[in-house]
Structures are given as C-alpha cells and as structure tokens.
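User: Can you predict the 3D structure for this chain?
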Amino acid sequence: MNIHAEQDNRSSLLEERKSFRRIWITAWMVTAVFVLSNSATPLYVYWQQKFNFSNGTLTLIFASYIVGLLLTPMIAGQLSDRFGRKPVLFPGITAAIIACLLFATAPSVIALLTARFLSGVAVGVMVSAGMASVVDAGGAKLKQQASLAASISMVLGAGLGPLLSSILSSVMTQPVSAFTRRPFR
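Assistant: Here is the predicted structure, written as structure tokens:
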C-alpha cells in the first residue's frame, strides 16, 4: 500500500512539473509578442528623420496600434472560446512576425502604420487567447500559478521590448536599416 502511495505521489509531482513547463513555454509566447509591441518605440526618432514625417504622423502611427489592439480582443476571445486557442494564436503570431519584418525593412510611413496596426492585432490576440492559453496550460490545479505567469510574461515583454531596442539602437550605426555592411559601431 505504501508503494502505491509513493508511486502516485511521484506521478503527481512529475505531472505538476510538466504542467509548470507547459505554463512557462506558453508564457514565453506572450512575452515575445509583448516585446515586439513596444520594441519599435525608441526607433521612431530614427524613422522620423529617415522619412521626414511630422509629429502628427507619428501620432497616427501610434493610433494604428490602438485600433488593432481594441478591435482584436473582442473577436479573438470569442473565436478562441469557440474553436480553441491554437487556431486563434497562429494568425496572431503570424501578424506579429509580419509586423516584425515590416519594422525591420520599413520603406515608408505606410509600412510603419501597417506594422504598428499588425502589432496591435498580435497583442490583442495575446491579451485574449494567449493569456487564456497560459492559464489553460496550468489546469485547475495550477490556475493561480498560471495566472501569475501570464501576468508576469505580459509585463516582462512590455518592459524588455523598449529596453532591448534602446540598447541595440545605441550600438548600431544605422538602427533602422536592416541591411547594412557595418551594423555595429
């Protein structure tokens, strides 16, 4: 009888470790999208000089993010509840990747507007389906820990984005040109 109890205890501990691993792996997806959402912020000074646009245009670029962010959670949340998290997360991650590529190669203000809008869409998906996915990964037993991981991942990503971008832009000779011969000073 003791042997069975010990085996059940080991099995339970192993399952809990797997759940913790799933929680943090899922949380990293949220962190990555939130890193993207704010990483472009320090670079707008460079883009403003490169494309010679006004502060009003800069405001429109930032507003396009808000439009994407406000529209998406209403739709993504309902879709993820109905069809599952993955079918909603993949398009959100795709939007994040396209936004990242547009930021890296931005040839115009329109590209910046589009990239900013898509990053808002990606964040909207993560706020609804991504955060729910992290909580789902914990199951009923680890719901509090999963909720904490979801919150930490969001805040960590939102803070790391501009920090890493600022550091990189301070050491690169042309921080808004993706393809340069000498990218570092």
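The chain has a mean pLDDT of 87. The chain has six helices and no strands.
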